[in-house]
Design a protein that fits this description.
Layout lengths: L2 E5 L3 E8 L13 E7 L1 H11 L3 E5 L1 E2 L3 H12 L2 E2 L4 E2 L4 E10 L5 E8 L5 H5 L8 E5 L3 H14 L5 E5 L7 H4 L4 E4 L1 H6 L5 H11 L4 E5 L4 E6 L2 E6 L12 H14 L4 H16 L15 E4 L8 E6 L2 E8 L2 E6 L17 E2 L4 E3 L6 E3 L5 E3 L12 E3 L4 E4 L1
Length: 396
């Protein structure tokens, strides 16, 4: 699967579930209270990690006690934060969120006393190592510079932008993104009550981009090169918790486009995924493993080693590098024979390649492309997998 970098805020969400939203100057008991990982881009990464992608987050981290808890939660969600900028002054952002059980709606109060990501810090990141870059539409002055770097140095990687709120200068960023996800809140704030009119106006500002917009209980909408797409919401969907639904919608779009789906198909998949989210509390365990085929335990895969397993009548090569795992059909495109026909397949730890044991074709672990040998530039067939929070590897 893909290696994704998202730039935005990481927040500790203090979520308080109540029967109904309390009236002012009254006293009531809450049903539950929990502390979760939050932030738009981080929420999307949590979903993408559940889908099996290798995800990284770049933003600012404070050096207070709450930051330690935030890092623990990032680690638990399998979100790499090695590219984050550490800030000496400031506090970890905290959002207090009331979720009303009777409506599923949420009311959020943000506390933020932490500087935004420096452009200079972002400029030091090797962004070309990632397959996809995703940005929150905030910190506009620095964001414009980040887009300039991304468009100058990236050759084929998509750049997506989430536009949730109106911010001065946000229009200047639209022409640099390939995929843009707008919120209904942003559209309404610009005076648009019809999603088709809104997306047409935005297409004029970003003719190069695929545009998406979730529209609450109505459904989702998209536009590409003037063609309008609409997916209606399921009227039977039970609303339990809407917190993070837009971030799940965005993750669904990114995953679907990575897997080669069309704009219309990506919209359909994203809407259905968002509906699945609002029917449950939180965004963990969106993908039940009950009906999935388990391949192995990540802890049983030795780093820089290869394991061959059988599933659904296919032989599958699992290659682990550090904390990520790639899966390919065990078949060399050169002679249509298993990679391990002659002897066990290993990973070259320096080049991070797999070698076919028959005719010495070398395939990059990262994407399965043959970089040396008789089938150069051909590729192994990728197998979609999911690694859950417990390290269990399943067919996706």
């Amino acid at each position: 699967m893909a290696k994704i970098l998202a730039v935005g805020n990481a927040v500790l969400d203090r979520v308080i579930d109540v029967t109904c939203y309390p009236q002012e100057n009254t006293e009531s008991r809450c049903l539950t209270m929990s502390e979760r990982l939050g932030g738009n881009a981080v929420n999307s990464l949590m979903v993408l990690a559940q889908m099996g992608h290798s995800v990284s987050w770049c933003g600012t981290l404070a050096q207070d006690s709450a930051s330690h808890m935030l890092k623990q939660q990032l680690n638990a969600a399998q979100i790499d934060h090695s590219t984050a900028q550490s800030i000496k002054k400031g506090s970890t952002p905290i959002s207090t969120i009331l979720v009303a059980q009777d409506t599923g709606s949420r009311t959020i109060s943000h506390f933020r006393h932490l500087p935004e990501l420096d452009f200079e810090h972002f400029a030091q990141i090797s962004i070309e190592d990632y397959d996809w870059l995703h940005f929150e539409g905030r910190n506009i002055d620095a964001l414009i510079g980040m887009f300039n770097i991304a468009t100058a140095f990236l050759t084929h990687q998509p750049i997506s932008l989430e536009v949730e709120k109106e911010r001065d200068g946000i229009d200047d960023c639209l022409a640099s993104a390939n995929i843009i996800m707008f919120s209904q809140h942003f559209a309404l704030g610009r005076g648009y009550t019809e999603p088709d009119n809104f997306l047409r106006a935005m297409q004029a500002l970003a003719p190069q981009a695929k545009l998406f917009c979730g529209w609450g209980n109505v459904g989702g909408f998209a536009m590409e090169e003037g063609h309008f797409y609409q997916v209606d919401a399921n009227p039977d969907c039970v609303v339990v918790d809407t917190l993070g639904a837009g971030d799940v919608f965005n993750a669904g779009i990114i995953d679907a486009l990575i897997r080669g789906h069309s704009t219309g198909e990506a919209l359909e998949l994203a809407v259905r995924l968002a509906e699945k989210k609002i029917a449950q509390h939180g965004i963990n365990h969106l993908f039940s493993n009950d009906n999935k085929i388990r391949l192995t335990d990540l802890n049983k895969l030795t780093a820089h080693k290869v394991s061959v397993v059988e599933a659904k009548g296919k032989s599958i090569v699992l290659a682990r590098v550090d904390d990520s795992v790639k899966a390919y059909v065990n078949n060399c495109p050169h002679a249509n024979v298993p990679l391990n026909s002659m002897y066990k397949v290993e990973i070259d730890p320096r080049e991070l390649t797999l070698k076919c044991s028959v005719h010495d074709a070398f395939f990059r672990v990262e994407d399965g492309v043959c970089v040396r040998g008789p089938c150069q530039n051909q590729a192994l067939e990728a197998v979609a997998i999911i690694v859950d929070a417990q390290g269990q590897v399943f067919l996706a």
